[in-house]
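Thread: zinc ion complex, take 2
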Amino acid sequence: MPIARVALDLPLSRLFDYRVADDSALTVGVRLLVPFGKREKIGVLVELATASKIAPEQLKEAVRIEDDLPPLPPEFFRLCEFAAQYYQTTLGEAIHQALPPALKKTRPAIRRATKKREVATPLPQPVKPELNAEQANAVALIAAARGFQPFLLYGVTGSGKTEVYLRLLENVLAEGLQVLLLAPEINLTPQLETRIQTHFPGVPLVMLHSGLTEAAREKAWRAAFLGEAGIVVGTRLAVFTPMPYLGLIIVDEEHDLSYKQQEGMRYSARDLAIYRASLGKMPIVLGSATPSLESWAHAQHGRYRLVTLLERAVSSARLPVVRMLDTRKVRLEEGLCPSLIEALRQRLEKGEQSLIFLNRRGYAPVLACPACAWISHCSRCAANLVVHLEDKRLRCHHCALETKIPLACPACGNRDIQPFGRGTQRIEAALAGQFPGARVLRVDRDSARSRKQWETILTRIHAGEVDILVGTQMLAKGHDFPRLTLVGVVGADAALFAADWRAPERLFAQLMQVAGRAGRADLPGEVLIQSEYPEHPLYNALTAHDYTGYAKALLEERRQAGFPPYAYQAMLRAEAPRMAMALAFIRDAVACANAGDYPGLSLFDAVPMRLSRLMNMERAQLLIESPSRAELQAFLAKWREILETMPRPRQLRWHLEVDPLEV
Ligand code: ADP
Ligand code: ZN
Ligand code: ZN
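Output below.
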């Protein structure tokens, strides 16, 4: 009788062996309901073996095979194996993260007939714009690719990248194949979804993201897996979805940080998508107006094929004029330059929309007492409580702790406590005061909490019911607001000198994206950026719309400093009730690392993380670096085995992160 070797969702490397009474349907890739301790768990059959190390009489028997789905295909396992190996976790954990929650739950099996995918019957096609020369060239180049070929589609904002994706989809769907389109955030997808669905009225499209109910997500996943859905649009978690007829992968806004998973297996969906395309021998398109430096470097070195769109697609639309406003020379009114206020006034008079971008939600980042220097501090985190005036709360943006705004200083009783600094709510209030007749709408994670609220906001913007938008990066990307002609940026300087060396890359991308919202149709756009450092190279590049020049300069800095993409990094992190405990664990880990066996490897010092306490856990980390990815990988694999068996205090948690994006 064969032995089923099963991956369970547990932080243990090994597989678990079971006997199966009725083995007629036993193949790799089926899900099994198995006894585990006192409970039953759903596992995935990874291997069939003839013998087990466990004595036959101790070997437990699987309860049943969950045969409501065909077995998961070999490519699914190869992707999970690669991910587990590369991101230093177990196959069980990788499989666990790859499957929708509903498929890992014990419950009565639903049976469903499997249908083969039919090539869409052509319905009346919607009107499509004629591609411009650059777009046509991009489509021709990419459509001609056979086998594995990564493309970097670098197209300025409004250059019509989405239109290029749609044409590529046409080709692939016409061959009866499926397409996987990854998008950064759920928030973007209603528009993208509508646009794709209108373009392909007859093709079944499913969405996959964490905002769906378990049942909806399972339904969408099944449609993709069974080949019924021609188009799958999803966030990072969709990268694992098995699709039997997959012919093309597109990663939109490939630079976006949300492709990186921040817990469990800390994977990059963009990077896994590349691996997946290579497994399936198909083309993959990474699209962005501000590619990540990693992808840009690959394109420069020829690993990715670079395809560029330098013109805006709508022939009358030009890139906006970007100007700096020197805040040292003027008196600000509630944080706004007089010339920005004047520019807003002009837009109001002309009935055009404006957007004020400030990447900080809440009213003010901190409440303080001028008499005794008390500040609103989170009791659980090394962070301040943010003032939310709207509902009169103080809120920690890291752990969600909240309290009422005190009427007097909790330390000295002073009744004159003050909010310091500025968030979106404060700018919103200032604008409402400045322009009493204007319709001001704030868009951030507080005002657009649900998808429904978000859709309402988008509808209002498009219906022209808003004069001035105040928003965080939620508004920065992917949107097409035809009547928006002015973008004002406030509070951007903070990122120029941030401790994280990736901050400038991010700030540049963010400002390029937000600037790209202005002047998309036939109205010219203007972008005004308030700064105390208007001569900073980052702003110079921005006013010149010079992504390539800035990318070149940043890459040169990275090369000289030996930073990624010219080196490979990983992070060991530990959290414990006390910092000393976390640091001690890391030092012990270093002591038994045998790092000397790896000539290129550098282990830095164990240090407290920037957010050194979160939810009452103190956090420390250690950076590991090597100029060779292979060396780093070899080291990490060995080290992880040691770490797993190392004695540690019960309250201490640790993890490894490969290719960390935040330091
Ligand atoms: P991107 O994704 O690069 O920001 P989009 O694909 O959203 O750009 O295109 C920007 C705008 O230009 C959209 O309103 C789109 O409908 C329009 N557009 C795209 N391609 C063309 C074209 N060839 N002719 C006319 N309009 C186009
Ligand atoms: Zn006080
Ligand atoms: Zn907190």
